[in-house]
């Protein structure tokens, strides 16, 4: 893992802006992510969370501002950055091992089989190497995609609502798995989610974005010790934080209420 | 409506029906299949003999079998000729078809302009051009190979293009996130994604190629299974005629089975 020089953030987002034609997805977005921490980004749909994450991955160029990784701007995909997609995004014509070896094939690198075997063991996928994605459950597929992302030993892992499509129980298992993997690898993780519970369970910091244009509204520290227990997560402190974050998001939807006003107007018209 | 719901989807369904003859077939089912075949063929034989139907109208299965075995050495060179025409024409047509589909789908603007012409090529029976091709190229292999290529190529192309058009932005983003080049994205993402539809196109193209090869042989020239059909029927040698028809249906089934097996091996992830 890359060591961090004194006080410099692992990831630094400076005045990031992104436009799609007339739509301003992000504007004046600033955020620092310390090394070896998990930071979650929450916010209502269309607040530019995914745009921000894809810009961090180097896949999308920003319209203005910059994002620095270890002090150098990200202008294209970098090997230190791993990306986990919304759906598992496995290639259906390759078996599980073929999917995990895909990055090495593209890069023409020799795969680190001991590390891959360890990761497969870690996420309980040992013995499924020959299985094809359509033979695996949604949770197994997403676990495989996490192994794929970690196989190149990235120092930053970007996760774009990775568990949104999973059922609630599988989702909790996956959250614990992410925490365990993080405790072992100390990768810096940026995690996008719709779920405040998920964000609180996983993160050292929770970032709330405002919609259109996407801006950082608030950053909350989550001070609970790890590994986080159910008792802590059900405690008063967690409840209060949850409430404040929810108020942030809900408040935005109310005050940004063009849509709500239109809706009530329409109701009155009828 | 996506294109997959059209020809491709139906062929896919057809392919699946063939898979009922897989490992799940019990002995009882096999016995029933054989018994049915015996009853149908035997019944036909008995009925044709009982009603004393003349051979020139419909020969009994036994006479067809005898003629097929007896005249097979005479038919064999014609089978060889038809296979040469079919395979070379198909290889040329399919090669060009897949290549053009891969290129054209990269340029949606060009695709829109070219689409009507492809549609004309697909829907026009290329047999119609055979007299003209014979006039230009004579009675040898060339006009027939060209006709087969013209018949199979557009079929392969239109289906392959449907395959290449199925772009999954997330999968391409995945490859790009590992620094994949345009060529790597083509070979490792676009091509495998297109493969099931390419196989459907190849199968339809091969069957259209077979039709066209036989038809072209019927139009002119002294060789090929199509030529045998016209010759035997003009000589009222109906057992031999039906023997050739049997060989043709066997070729059709062979095309179907070959692509079914390739699809099962390389494109089974789709179903």
Describe this structure in words.
The complex is a heterodimer of chains A (270) and B (271). Chain A is α/β, with parallel strands linked by helices. Chain A has a domain at 8-80 and 156-163 and 189-253: P-loop containing nucleotide triphosphate hydrolases (Rossmann fold), CATH 3.40.50. Chain A has helices at 49-57, 96-107, 113-122, 138-150, 168-185, 196-202, 230-233, 236-255, 258-269; strands spanning 11-20, 23-33, 38-42, 64-69, 72-73, 81-84, 156-160, 188-192, 205-210, 215-221. Chain A has a six-stranded mixed β-sheet with strand order 6-7-8-3-9-10, with helices on both faces. A four-stranded antiparallel β-sheet of chain A has the order 2-1-4-5, with helices on one face. In chain A, helix 2 (96-107) packs parallel to helix 4 (138-150). The termini of chain A are far apart. Chain B has 271 residues and is mainly α. In chain B, helix 4 (108-123) packs across helix 6 (141-165), helix 7 (169-177) packs across helix 8 (182-219) and helix 9 packs antiparallel against helix 10. Chain B has one domain: MetI-like fold (Orthogonal Bundle). Chain B is flat. Classes of the chains: A alpha/beta (270), B mainly alpha (271).
């Amino acid at each position: 893992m890359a060591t961090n020089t004194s006080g410099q953030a692992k990831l630094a987002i400076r005045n990031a802006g992104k436009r799609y034609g007339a739509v301003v997805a992000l504007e004046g977005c600033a955020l620092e992510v310390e090394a070896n921490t998990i930071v979650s980004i929450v916010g209502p749909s269309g607040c530019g969370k995914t745009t921000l994450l894809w810009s961090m991955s180097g896949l999308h160029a920003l319209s203005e501002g910059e994002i620095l990784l270890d002090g150098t701007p990200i202008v294209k995909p970098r090997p230190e950055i791993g990306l986990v997609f919304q759906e598992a995004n496995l290639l259906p014509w390759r078996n599980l091992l073929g999917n995990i070896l895909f990055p090495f094939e593209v890069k023409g690198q020799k795969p680190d089989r001991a590390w891959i075997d360890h990761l497969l063991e870690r996420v309980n996928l040992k013995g499924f190497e020959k299985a094809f994605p359509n033979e695996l459950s949604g949770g197994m597929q997403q676990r495989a995609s996490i192994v794929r992302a970690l196989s190149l030993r990235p120092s930053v892992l970007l996760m774009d609502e990775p568990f949104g499509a999973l059922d609630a129980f599988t989702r909790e298992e996956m959250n614990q798995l992410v925490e365990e993997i993080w405790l072992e690898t100390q990768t810096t993780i940026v995690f996008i989610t719709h779920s405040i519970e998920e964000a609180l369970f996983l993160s050292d910091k929770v970032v709330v974005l405002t919609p259109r244009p996407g801006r950082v509204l608030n950053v909350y520290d989550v001070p609970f010790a790890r590994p986080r227990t159910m008792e802590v997560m059900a405690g008063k402190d967690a409840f209060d934080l949850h409430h404040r974050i929810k108020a942030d998001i809900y408040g935005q939807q109310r005050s940004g209420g063009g849509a709500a006003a239109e809706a009530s107007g329409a109701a009155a018209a009828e | 409506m996506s294109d997959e719901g059209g020809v491709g989807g139906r062929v896919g369904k057809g392919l699946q029906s063939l898979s009922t003859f897989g490992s799940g077939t019990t002995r009882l089912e096999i016995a029933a299949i054989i018994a049915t075949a015996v009853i149908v063929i035997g019944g036909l034989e008995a009925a044709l003999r009982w009603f004393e139907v003349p051979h020139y109208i419909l020969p009994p299965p036994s006479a067809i079998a005898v003629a097929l075995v007896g005249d097979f050495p005479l038919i064999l060179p014609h089978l060889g000729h038809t296979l040469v025409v079919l395979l070379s024409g198909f290889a040329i047509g399919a090669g060009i078809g897949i290549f053009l589909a891969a290129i054209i789908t990269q340029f949606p603007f060009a695709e829109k302009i070219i689409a009507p012409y492809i549609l004309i090529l697909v829907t026009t029976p290329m047999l119609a051009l055979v007299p003209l091709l014979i006039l230009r190229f004579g009675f040898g292999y060339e006009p027939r190979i060209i006709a087969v290529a013209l018949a199979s190529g557009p079929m392969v192309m239109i289906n392959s293009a449907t395959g290449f058009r199925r772009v999954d932005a997330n999968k391409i983003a995945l490859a790009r996130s590992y620094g994949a080049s345009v060529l790597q994205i083509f070979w490792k993402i676009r091509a495998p994604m297109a493969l099931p539809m390419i196989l459907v196109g190849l199968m339809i193209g091969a069957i259209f190629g077979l039709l066209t090869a036989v038809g072209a042989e019927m139009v002119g020239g002294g060789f090929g299974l199509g030529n045998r059909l016209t010759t035997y029927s003009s000589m009222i040698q109906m057992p031999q005629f039906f023997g050739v028809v049997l060989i043709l249906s066997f070729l059709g089934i062979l095309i179907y089975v070959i692509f079914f097996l390739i699809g099962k091996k390389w494109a089974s992830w789709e179903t």
